Amino acid sequence: MSQETATSGKAEGKSKSSGGVEPELDVTTLDLTTLDSAMEETEELAPPTGKSLIWVVRVLSIVAVLGAWEILGRQVDPLFMSYPSAIAVAATELIGSGELLVGLLSSLRTLVVAFFIASVLGITLGLLIGRYRLVDAATDWLVNALYATPLVAIIPLVILWFGLGNTAKTFIVTILALFPILINTTAGVRNVPKQLIDVGDAFAANERQIFTKIILPSALPYMMTGLRLGVGRAIIGMVVAEFFTAITGLGALIVKYGNQYDTASMFVPIFVLMLLGIGLSLAVRRAEEWIAPWKATEE
């Protein structure tokens, strides 16, 4: 009897111990599930991070600036300052009359032609100056002198050379856009690691192969930076040329409505120039990502 009692006691103990383990496992599993759901809810309620936060801040800052401008601009005499709603009305009128489109197309023709010429000249000369020391020695003084000279000061001379037509405008825009492209391309060639060129020489690569396989890929990010800077300088040159030479395009609209003291209409081509610069800079950046995808990967 005693042995049976002991045996039954042991069995009851085992059943109790096993019965005690199972609830502990259930509670632990329940706690983990609750914790996971709570973390998911916390993540949903958390503020946006990364790019979404940047865009939220950017949009809020734009809205705040425009709102403050609208409120404060209405307190100023319209002869001296306008405000966003009045500028939007003026833009609608200029678009409806076709005047804005005609001015924009006239400015774009000059800008595209001059920027293409400046890009070809700047990249070609930059590659030669950066690669060959004799070319650098022959031209560095001229490049430095012209870059340090305020090129707006030579506009009267340009008018004497080319008159008041589109040729003078193209020359001015080309000169202003040329030097950022040239200088950045030269810097890109000079920053090519010498070890890469030594490897090319060791494998008997000719000059054309070194240029196309080593120098151009390495200097490409510098070239694209020069193009982005050149776009801004080209737009400045275009407006300056339209002020002082052939009074056409968006610059002519600024002069016209400035002389008429129509501040709201004068702001319209100014905003178009600003958006044009932003759009062209973004286009060059997208072109860089397409031509040199490894640069975006490194960043």
Helix and strand arrangement:
Layout lengths: L1 H44 L5 H23 L10 H14 L1 H33 L1 H16 L6 H8 L3 H25 L3 H9 L4 H38 L4 H11 L3 H29 L1 H6 L1
Helix pairs in contact: 3-11, 4-5, 4-7, 4-9, 4-10, 6-7, 7-9, 8-9, 9-10, 9-11, 10-11
Question: Care to describe what's here?
Answer:
The protein has 299 residues and is mainly α. It is built from twelve helices and no strands. The chain folds into two domains: 30 residues; 215 residues, Orthogonal Bundle (MetI-like fold). The radius of gyration is 34 Å and the shape is globular.
How would you characterize the largest beta sheet? none
- The poorly predicted ranges are 1-30, 42-46
Distance between the termini: 83 Å
The general outline is: globular
CATH homology group of the largest domain:
MetI-like
Number of domains: 2
Helix and strand element order: HHHHHHHHHHHH
What's the overall average pLDDT, rounded? Answer: 79
CATH topology of the largest domain: MetI-like fold
Total count of strands: 0
Secondary-structure arrangement, i.e. CATH architecture of the largest domain:
Orthogonal Bundle
What is the highest CATH level, the class of the largest domain?
Mainly Alpha
DSSP strand content: under 5%
Overall structural class, as computed from helix and strand content, comes to: mainly alpha
User: Rounded to an integer, what's the Rg over CA atoms?
Assistant: 34 Å
